[in-house]
Amino acid sequence: MEMLGHFNYWVSIILMMTGFYAVIASTNMVKKLIGLGMFQTAVFLLYISIGKVRGGTAPILIDGVAAGDVSFSNPLTHVLILTAIVVSIATTALGLAIVVRIREAYGCIEEDETIAMDMADERAEDAMPPTIADAKRRLGWLPRSQAASRAPLPAQLPDRKPAASRPLAPRKGPTGRRKSAPRKGKGRP
């Protein structure tokens, strides 16, 4: 009889474990979000059932009734759950927006398929030809410490002199006139 007296706790636990299983076992991202919603709802039910006292009323004092004669339900859990429901809705909306974006990018919402596509992209990037910066570095046009860019290498590199031996273009100011280099002099390095 004692077990049946806590029926609301058992319902919460069963809902919680069902939602947890859906999050862990499913590869479909929408089903994962549904499982997450079930889990959150089970937590809400658990907290609301904890706050309810059998025979208790709302904690509103009426003139002429002593506080010792009446038992009250705790309103704090209900208020906290109202906040949690708002957070739950926002989490679900954000999750659905991310799933829509993943569907646009990958063409599916199955987790294992998207991971397989990412792995294939990484293997393809490893097999890519060297970048322009790598080719310039090998020819001595760039210092070895400069990071490589990810721009693809064109079919042929133009014949150019190394950067150190090329003359610098004249610098021009906003008026279009050539600016002179700063002079060394008094108070200047």
From TrEMBL:
<dbReference type="Pfam" id="PF00420">
    <property type="entry name" value="Oxidored_q2"/>
</dbReference>
<feature type="compositionally biased region" description="Basic residues">
    <location>
        <begin position="174"/>
        <end position="189"/>
    </location>
</feature>
<keyword id="KW-1133">Transmembrane helix</keyword>
<feature type="transmembrane region" description="Helical">
    <location>
        <begin position="79"/>
        <end position="100"/>
    </location>
</feature>
<protein>
    <recommendedName>
        <fullName>Na+/H+ antiporter subunit C</fullName>
    </recommendedName>
</protein>
<feature type="region of interest" description="Disordered">
    <location>
        <begin position="146"/>
        <end position="189"/>
    </location>
</feature>
<dbReference type="InterPro" id="IPR039428">
    <property type="entry name" value="NUOK/Mnh_C1-like"/>
</dbReference>
<keyword id="KW-0812">Transmembrane</keyword>
<feature type="transmembrane region" description="Helical">
    <location>
        <begin position="6"/>
        <end position="26"/>
    </location>
</feature>
<keyword id="KW-0472">Membrane</keyword>
<keyword id="KW-1003">Cell membrane</keyword>
<feature type="transmembrane region" description="Helical">
    <location>
        <begin position="33"/>
        <end position="50"/>
    </location>
</feature>
<dbReference type="InterPro" id="IPR050601">
    <property type="entry name" value="CPA3_antiporter_subunitC"/>
</dbReference>
<comment type="similarity">
    <text>Belongs to the CPA3 antiporters (TC 2.A.63) subunit C family.</text>
</comment>
